[in-house]
Design a protein that fits this description.
- Helices cover 60% and strands 22% of the residues.
- With 166 residues, the chain is α+β, with helices and mostly antiparallel strands.
- It has one domain: 2-Layer Sandwich (Gyrase A, domain 2).
- Strands 1, 2, 3, 4 and 5 form a five-stranded antiparallel sheet that branches.
- The chain is rod-shaped and about 100 Å long.
- The relative contact order is 0.11.
Length: 166
């Protein structure tokens, strides 16, 4: 006989040895315990779903905000007519990046008025501040920007950034 069958037989024998009122009490306690377990599991699952839903909504809101900021940067960059100095674009980009605490991974001048820039993962607000500074102070605007979010909140990965001078 297996251990489970043996345990089952002993449990049934113990249950049957109890009085009728004790048997009813055992059944009621068993039902209450089962309900307690079911409610506990259900509430845990419901809380987990609620938290996941909240996180999803926050990420969607952050994504929408980031897309709006990118569109704003692109729009304002193309209409900006701030005059730049006679400094080379690469020099201006390098200096302003350093001033704004931004680490350049790559700086490739394409023409006198076009530079491709590679950046390390960075804070999105820091990126927008730097790009606004380039546009407003130096007449350098974003002609192409491709970025993606990272696992860390507020940090973006700039896959492609092309800067042009008016």
């Amino acid at each position: 006989m297996s251990a489970i069958a043996n345990f089952k037989q002993k449990t049934i024998a113990l249950y049957q040895s109890k009085t009728e009122s004790e048997q009813k009490l055992i059944l009621i306690l068993g039902v209450c315990f089962s309900l307690f377990i079911l409610i506990s599991v259900y509430s845990s699952v419901a809380n987990g779903l609620s938290e996941t839903s909240k996180k999803l909504i926050q990420q969607q809101e952050l994504n929408t905000w980031a897309e709006q900021q990118i569109a704003l940067i692109k729009r304002s960059g193309k209409t900006s007519s701030a005059s730049g100095s006679n400094s080379s674009m690469a020099q201006v980009i390098n200096t302003t990046a350093r001033r704004n605490g931004i680490t350049l991974a790559r700086l490739q001048p394409q023409t006198a008025d076009l530079v491709k820039v590679g950046l390390e993962d960075m804070n999105f607000n820091q990126l927008t501040k730097w790009l606004a500074d380039l546009r407003n102070q130096h007449g350098i605007y974003v002609s192409n920007l491709d970025l993606s979010k990272t696992d860390e909140t507020g940090i973006v990965r700039v896959r492609r950034l092309d800067l042009e001078r008016n």
